[in-house]
Each structure stands twice: as structure tokens, then as C-alpha cells.
Design brief:
The chain is an alpha/beta fold. The protein folds into two domains: 65 residues, no CATH class; 207 residues, Vaccinia Virus protein VP39 (Rossmann fold, 3-Layer(aba) Sandwich). Helix content is 41%, strand content 21%. The protein has a five-stranded parallel β-sheet. The protein has a three-stranded antiparallel β-sheet with strand order 3-5-4. The chain has a three-stranded antiparallel β-sheet with strand order 10-9-11. The chain is globular and about 60 Å long. The chain binds S-adenosylmethionine (SAM). The site of S-adenosylmethionine (SAM) has 25 residues, from loops.
Length: 292
Amino acid sequence: MSLTLENFDYVDELVRQQSAIVLGRDKRYLAETRLASLAREEGCESLNEFVTRLRVPHNNGLRAKVVEAMTTNETLFFRDSHPFESLRQTIVPKLIERRSAQRSLSIWSAACSSGQEPYSIAMLLHEHFPVLQGWNVRLIATDLCAGMIERARLGRFRQLEVNRGLPAAYLVKYFQREGLDWQINSNVRRLVQFLQLNLAADNWPALPPLDVIFLRNVLIYFEVPTRKQILGKIRRLLRPDGYLFLGGAETTFHVDDAFECVSVDSSKCFRLRDVCRTEPRQPDNIHCLVTS
Ligand SMILES: C[S@@+](CC[C@H](N)C(=O)[O-])C[C@H]1O[C@@H](n2cnc3c(N)ncnc32)[C@H](O)[C@@H]1O
């Protein structure tokens, strides 16, 4: 099934308005592939007929499905491993020390897709930091797609998904077989609070001040003004001594210079600049890479 350029531009604009994801004309083939099954489900004989239906005013349900179909939800457990190693070795121990009076810790996995990222964090906390069981730990996970949030909340994964990044010992300890799938145990599942949140929206639901934010592999889909807008909001939510993780191909450099890139163990993360300047480096094992 193919789309006329005019109909592709309509889809491109719709996706951009509702998610800030920029497709561009070189993604026309992608739209054709991803929308073909939706078009068939709607009983349309061609993609152009489908887009005609999409253009009908107030067809918001169908428009939301199109936007969801155009998101890339690729994810895996313990993706890139280093951020999780840094959490375990340095960041969480440091935060436990700093927050021992309040006994509270807040972590946000923004753009969590089907849940592997927040569940990786939840398993890591459960496995290595039993002391946190007496704390108020908020692990919030959000995504644009209602379908992803629903899947993530269920905590049910296919064999292929648990084969990707999940240590065998964690599979045995934290999952149960359910038919052909694997169900994450309720003691891990209940640690994560899932919400739908569009990072590009003007208003976000209320979030607590955050100690750690995972905002990985999503800024790449946006143009610079949208990245700036999102990082501006993130900056206000992140605690002054908090940690921001982006994807390997993402940076705050030239987008929001309030952040600076630091090394924590073998991973790279971003912290608010003043903190980096004033905190002792050696005991923290944190070295500022970008200096002003
Ligand atoms: C490639 S996945 C990244 C998942 C996970 N963070 C990781 O690194 O493995 C990108 C996710 O961003 C979500 N996304 C795209 N646009 C978004 C937006 N405007 N607001 C919130 N989430 C969005 C998609 O639905 C998708 O689940």
C-alpha cells in the first residue's frame, strides 16, 4: 500500500503536532509499512482511503492510533548496562547517604516504552538495596503511548524480550512462566507507577522532585526547540544534586547548557552545572568532562 505525498504530509504533520516526532519525507516508506495493518483493521482498501478517514473532524481515537503506530518502541532490559552499573555502584549508595534523613527517593523513567527500563531499575533496587524497603521510593514510568503503558503495567514479556539483556538469575528470581510468556513478580511490579505523559505537551502531570531521571532514546526523535523545551522542564524537576541519563546518541550540549556531562564509573550522565562545580570530585568518583 502506498501514500500520496500529500497524504503522507498530512500524517507527518499530525504526528508532529501530537508527539513532536519528526518524520520527514524520507520516512514515507516507514509510514506506509506501519499504517498498512491499521488501514486493514479499519477495513480500508488503500492507505489513501485510510487517510481520508483520518481527516474526518473529531476522529481523535484513530489519530491517536496513528501517532502510536509511528513511535519506535525499541527497548530491552538493562539497555547499555553502564547506567545501571553506575546506579548500583555509585549513585544509589550516594543518594541513600544524602537522603537518609528524609528516607525518600524518586526516580523517573520517561519514555519507558513496554517497561523494560523501569523494571530493570526496580529489580536492581530490590536486589542490591534492601535498606530501601523501609523508604518511600517512587519509581515513576511514563510514555506517550497508552498501548505501551498498558503493556508495561501488565509486566508480561515474551520469551524474545526476556532473552534480551535480562540476566538468567533475574529471570529465575523475578519472573514466573505464564503460558509462553513471562510475568514479572508483583513485588517488583508494584514498585513502578505507570502514567501516560506526552513530553512535548505544554503541561505535564504533577511529578515529585526527582533524584534520577532516565530520558533515554527519545530526544533523538525531536527537533532542537522541542529538546530545549523538554530539558528546560526536566531541569526544574531534577533535584540540584540529581542525575539525568540520556541515550548514547543524545546530549544536552548546545541544547541546554545548564547541564554538564559527567562520568560516573563507566557511564556518562548529566548534572546541573553548579553542583558539578561545588561538589568534591574524588570521593564521588565523578569527573566533569565539560567545563565552562
Ligand atoms: C526507543 S523507545 C526508548 C525506550 C527506553 N527509554 C529505552 O531507552 O530503552 C522511545 C519511546 O519514546 C516514546 N515517545 C515518543 N514520543 C514521545 C513523547 N512525545 N512523549 C513521551 N514519550 C514519547 C515512544 O512511545 C517510545 O516508547
